[in-house]
Amino acid sequence: MSERFSYRPNREAYNAAKVKALESLLIEKGIISSETVDKVLTFFETDFGPFNGAKLVARAWVDPEFKACLLTNTPEAIAQMDFPPGMAGAEGEYMKVVENTPKVHNLVVCTLCSCYPWPMLGLPPYWYKDPTFRSRAVKEPRKVLKEFGLELDESKEVRVWDSSAQIRWFVLPERPARTEGMSEEELAALVTPEAMMGVAQVKVPA
After folding, report:
1. CATH entry 3.90.330.10 includes domain 49-197
2. Which of 27, 45, 107, 175 would be 198's cystine partner, CB 3.0–4.6 Å?
3. DSSP single-letter state for residue 9
4. Among residues 33, 34, 113, 135, which one is catalytic?
5. Residue 12, Cα to own-chain centre: how many angstroms?
6. Can you give the pLDDT at residue 1?
7. Which residues are involved in binding Fe(3+) (predicted)?
């Protein structure tokens, strides 16, 4: 991946220290409680996350009727799943799926800020919020994808979808070969957030 999308090794520790300091200050002033913090963290560990999106993808791969619904009315398809309440709440007001095919590859970006389908993909990664990624993904998507390690044939069309406060896009990746006998659970385990953002393809371990 390009150095433009890499960060100093201690970035996580640095940001964690800042968050901890802010959390302690807010608790000390009585604005929030430690119980509130724990509840929010647990929510993102167990309810909102890429495991939800992976389940949607796996279901679409094995159920043509569900796939058709997912592509035409994403919220309705999500409502059919046994997900926790709140999928259409904050950051999930309206979500829309686009499908990768042998002829078309889709890439999702948010050129204005970092709008992202949190309920299905979890919290956005650093590079998704990077102004360099946001601008270059629109201007030179093939080059950006190559820097992520994804080199596409020139015959394949690349479409870039701009997420916003009105609509948050994510990708239905192509189902990889050699997965015909896999269960939904096994298929879901193959799906990554990167594949649902369009910067990677789903791969089967060797």
Report:
1. yes
2. 107
3. T
4. 113
5. 20
6. 45
7. 110, 113-115
